[in-house]
Amino acid sequence: MNAPHAELDDPVLLARIERLERRARRDRVLALGALVVALATAQAPPPPASLAPSSLGVRGADGTSALLDGAGLTVRSAAGVAQLYAGLDTTGSPYVSEADANGHQRESLFLYDNGAPGLRQFDAAHVVRTDVYLASGADPTIHLSNAQGVAQASLFIGDKGLPEFDVRNTHGDAVGYLSADDQGAFLNMRDPSLNVRTYAGQYTDGTWGVDVRNATNTNLFKAP
Question: How many angstroms separate the CA atoms of 211 and 200, rounded?
Fold first, then answer.
């Protein structure tokens, strides 16, 4: 991000803004990782050839069916549409997938390569709208995305072990950020150019205040 910091004089403000920017960079890395997982788990993998003959299939009176083999369990509707798969994905990690009556994946539960669990929910167009996972260091994170798959609201535990929340524009840029520490809460807001324009919260001297700046980072109002 390109927000100027040259005129900021409060170390807490600087630290919090830096933490937001580090998080934005981390989210880009996680987004790439999530794409890899989505591609790897787009469909249930076939069982290894050596185990393919060892399978068990059952069919219900209503036409539904289930197939259990060495890779996992697949359940199909009476129309033959696979709606549930539980087993191992193409990376060998545990994976559960649920699909609607048309066979479109709507939810998945899986483990990342590092063993961290993840839950992903899709809309009818197979766009990820909800993403819940444990990030590095076992920090829980929730992303809510728009119809284009861009995360626009995120709730997470930050690097200090305390809750943080950010909102983003349709491009995925963080424009609003709320964090908290043991001394109090802090809010900052950015303009379309991602310049920080408003700070509100507790300063290092223990007082609470508001700081408003223009696009060139010149202070327009500060209280107290």
Answer: 6
